[in-house]
Design goal:
With 456 residues, this protein is mainly alpha-helical. It is built from 25 helices and two strands. The protein has three domains: 206 residues, Alpha Horseshoe (Leucine-rich Repeat Variant); 196 residues, Leucine-rich Repeat Variant (Alpha Horseshoe); 34 residues, no CATH class. The protein has a two-stranded antiparallel ribbon.
């Protein structure tokens, strides 16, 4: 059947017949009634929508059209058990709602007003495909609109369902979440009301989207998030990040003794770590850097934490506690068999010091006021002290070098401080020793420190 822009008699008769069938189904719909015929009607109407606005509008405005569709989908969700037959029927019904909204501003408004509750219920129905299709409907409705007009009407349960669908792999849940992250005030309003796994997902999405490198301008634009979200994350980090210092062991999060109390009473170490990951990633993006550079207390907090972590780590190392999460390790084998590589990587302290160095270095980029503040806080030697391999903080050496470069850029005061440092010899390097090498210092300030084989 070819669509010409005008619905012919056979189209109208076929759609009218199917809508009337829906009205009959809705009158006697119980678990004892087979779903096969309802699936056929949903499928027919879903496919008819593809042919154009005339078909979409006819179904939506039919007295036995949308009202019966809404009633039947609600019954499928709440009356029928979660069998595969029920799930297939639910998917077809939600796909029908989605097709009714495609490129049709008139039907989008009607579907949103009349189907909000069943869309929310479908997001929580337990069938991932149905949830993805419900997220598709929401995405179609939100797309091209001023998101603020829509999300301010959302309740927490609806938002939670959207985020959960994205967590479970729904691409439309993810697309909708990216749209919402662009909205002024959305993160501030809903983030605190979500559960920890949903908050983790949002933070991971934000840090990944800012750190991804892409030449596709459209893709880069779709992954932006509102500046107000950066300010919110920065405020949360400054207010609660001290609690990361309360951790006492290097084991996995779920095995940390006393971590439950720490999480409920003093903050969640995993969340604190992810806040920092977002800030470190965002500070490397000019879209967000100026906002973070204007946040003076953020720099002070980052330097304070770096100093504290260095101090705590050295004290623990002096006491022989190599499993403390802030003790640098050059090789995992030095820790014995009590911890695996995955244990270390799953710990919230993994990469934390590196991200502090990364954040401080990025904040100093082409900003003499911040460069001087870092100097005033005596953090330059602190960053230089991070120029060593640390399995708990991959690539910390590279980020420390980049931070020093940004601090020295156009700033003679910082350059003079670094130039005035005295060489006091070399430190023991267990990793080099395992390779049969060592550092050699002749004592001559005019000669470079060299790597030489260990004497046999």
């Amino acid at each position: 059947m070819k669509y010409t822009g005008i619905m012919d008699i056979s189209d109208e008769e076929g759609i009218n017949e199917r809508c009337n069938d829906l009205q009959k189904f809705s009158q006697k719909f119980t678990p004892g009634i087979g779903l096969e015929k309802l699936c056929d009607s949903f499928r027919y109407l879903r496919n008819a929508c593809v042919l154009g606005h005339k078909h979409q509008n006819f179904i939506v405005n039919h007295s036995n059209g949308l009202p019966c569709i809404v009633k039947l989908i609600d019954s499928v969700i709440h009356v029928f058990p979660g069998t595969e037959e029920r799930n297939i029927c639910l998917r077809l019904g939600v796909q029908l709602l989605g097709n009714l909204t495609v490129n049709n501003d008139e039907t989008k408004k009607i579907i949103w007003e009349r189907c909000y509750s069943i869309l929310s219920a479908t997001l929580h129905c337990g069938d991932e495909k149905s949830s993805n299709y419900a997220a598709m409907v929401v995405y179609n409705i939100f797309l091209g609109k001023q998101e603020e007009e829509l999300w301010k009407e959302l309740d927490v349960d609806f938002v939670s369902g959207l985020v959960s669908s994205a967590v479970c792999g729904s691409e439309y849940g993810l697309f909708t979440l990216e749209l919402l992250l662009k909205s002024q005030g959305w993160v501030e309003k809903y983030y605190p009301k979500l559960d920890s796994q949903q908050r983790y997902f949002i933070l991971d999405l934000m840090s990944n989207n800012t750190s991804e490198i892409s030449d596709d301008s459209a893709a880069k634009e779709s992954r932006k998030f509102n500046l107000s979200a950066v300010v919110f994350i920065s405020n949360e980090f400054r207010s609660h990040s001290d609690h990361i210092l309360d951790m006492r062991t290097g084991s996995k999060v779920e095995n940390i003794e006393g971590l439950t109390d720490c999480t409920t009473e003093m903050g969640d170490p995993c969340e604190i770590s992810k806040w920092l990951e977002v800030l470190a990633s965002a500070s490397g993006n000019e879209e967000y850097l100026s906002v973070l550079q204007a946040d003076g207390p953020l720099l002070v907090q980052a330097v304070f934490l770096l100093k504290s972590i260095q101090l705590v780590g050295k004290l623990a190392e002096d006491e022989g506690d190599l499993q403390h999460p802030f003790v640098p390790i050059q090789k995992l084998s030095t820790m014995g068999s009590s911890q695996s590589e995955s244990d270390v990587e799953m710990h919230p302290a993994h990469g934390f010091k590196r991200n502090l160095v990364r954040l401080i270095g990025n904040l100093a980029w082409k900003n003499k006021e911040i460069q001087n503040k870092v100097l005033e806080l005596e953090a330059v030697p602190l960053i230089l002290d991070c120029c060593n391999i640390d399995e708990r903080n991959p690539f910390i050496t590279q980020w420390a070098i980049m931070a020093i470069r940004n601090l020295c850029d156009g700033n003679h005061e910082v350059q003079n401080v670094i130039g005035g440092l005295k060489r006091e010899g070399v430190v023991s390097n267990d990793l080099l020793k395992e390779m049969g090498l060592t550092l050699h210092d002749s004592g001559n300030p005019n000669e470079k420190i060299s790597i030489v084989p260990l004497p046999r």
